[in-house]
């Protein structure tokens, strides 16, 4: 399945509704993660690229799993075996929530893209804390960092957003290796307003205090205009945030061969030009004062190499896995 196997399996998965296929794969992985890790990864142990760091956090390599694929941390042991040097689960919220009505995940095969409007469907931060604690107690915690992407519950009023983030972070402090504050998803009403300076001035110090020394990163949208992006990065530096994740999905439909007319965030190949521009702008503002993780439409070793050479501490993947399969991280690392 690391190569030919996935090419045979993909047509079967693509006959299913996108979210049904997603849930089926995760269910299989969660039932026997070690066995599936060996099956998916192929022969040999997982590759390791020592020397990469995210601030003070040592990574197993420069390519990480982006948030959104394993929302509830159900298959954590699998991802490092595929070659990921760090893993980000979530987005998780203080309250369990079903997310938006289905269908809410759409494949665009001609463009190697996805549109999603999940709306942070997850089992809640209390359940994730239980699952992470159980994994640690069983000795199954991987040798690479596991971060948690944290968002705001839909039912929580904007005025109480900070408390919502703090609740989740407090539950998970001491379990997660780092936190990422997701204020950039387009699928929770009002969430992107938390990228504004006045909101970040309240959120960032409170999140850092709740994290109790665990690194906290800030994830920003590709749709932010350069002045707003620069302001957010400067504030993150001032507050002592440990890194910037640039970027998230976009509301733009630029680059699509055909717009399906579905609302939600676009990811995959068409996002790359916009994400690349925002990543480079983020690096320019950061000036080496804060690490930057590059995300958005990455699918080739050339793209990874470009972002690392530009100054990114690491990169993350998600959508390309859907189209190229679980062998992708190892292929990219081999080319690097």
Question: Could you explain the architecture of this structure?
Answer:
By secondary structure, the protein is an alpha/beta fold. 39% of the residues lie in helices and 16% in strands. The chain has an eight-stranded parallel β-barrel, surrounded by five helices. Strands 5-6-11 form a three-stranded antiparallel sheet, with no helix packed on it. Helix 6 links the parallel strand 7 (146-150) and strand 8. Helix 5 packs parallel to helix 6. The mean pLDDT is 91.
What can be said about this structure in brief?
This protein has 12 helices and 13 strands.
Strand content: 15-25%
What global shape is seen? globular
Let me know the number of strands: 13
- Order of adjacent strands in the largest pleated sheet: 3-4-7-8-9-10-12-13
Radius of gyration: 18 Å
Largest pleated sheet? 8 strands, parallel, barrel
Q: Show unreliable segments.
A: none
User: What is the overall pLDDT average?
Assistant: 91
Number of helices: 12
Cα end-to-end separation: 22 Å
Helix share bin: 25-40%
What is the element string, with H for helices and E for strands?
A: HHHEEEHEEEHEHEHEHEEHEHEHH
Q: Decide which structural class fits the backbone.
A: alpha/beta
């Amino acid at each position: 399945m690391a190569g030919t196997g996935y090419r045979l399996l993909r047509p079967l998965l693509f006959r299913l509704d996108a979210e049904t296929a997603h849930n089926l794969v995760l269910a299989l992985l969660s039932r026997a993660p070690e066995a599936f890790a060996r099956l998916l990864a192929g022969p040999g142990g997982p590759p390791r690229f020592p020397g990469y760091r995210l601030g003070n956090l040592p990574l197993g390599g420069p390519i990480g799993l982006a948030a959104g694929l394993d929302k509830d941390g159900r298959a954590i042991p699998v991802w490092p075996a595929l070659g990921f040097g760090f893993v980000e689960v979530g987005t998780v919220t203080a309250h369990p929530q079903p997310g938006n009505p289905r269908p809410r995940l759409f494949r665009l095969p001609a463009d190697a893209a996805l549109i999603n409007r999940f709306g942070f469907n997850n089992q809640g931060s209390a359940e994730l804390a239980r699952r992470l604690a159980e994994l640690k107690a069983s000795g199954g915690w991987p040798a690479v960092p596991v971060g948690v992407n944290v968002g705001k519950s839909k039912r929580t009023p904007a005025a109480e957003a900070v408390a919502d983030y703090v609740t989740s972070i407090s539950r998970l402090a001491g379990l997660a290796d780092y936190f990422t504050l997701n204020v950039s998803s387009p699928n929770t009403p009002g969430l992107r307003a938390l990228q504004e300076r006045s909101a970040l001035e309240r959120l960032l110090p409170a999140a850092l205090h709740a994290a109790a020394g665990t690194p906290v990163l800030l994830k920003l949208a590709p749709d932010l205009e350069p002045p707003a992006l620069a302001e957010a990065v400067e504030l993150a530096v001032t507050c002592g945030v440990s890194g910037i994740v640039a970027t998230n999905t976009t509301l733009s439909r630029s680059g699509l061969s055909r717009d399906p007319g579905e609302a939600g965030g676009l990811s995959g190949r068409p996002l790359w030009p916009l994400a690349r521009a925002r990543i480079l702008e983020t690096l320019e503002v950061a000036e080496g004062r804060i690490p930057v993780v590059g995300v958005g439409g990455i699918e080739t070793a050339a793209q990874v190499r470009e972002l690392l050479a530009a100054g990114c501490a690491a990169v993350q993947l998600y959508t390309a896995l859907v189209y190229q399969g679980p062998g992708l991280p190892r292929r990219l690392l081999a080319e690097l």
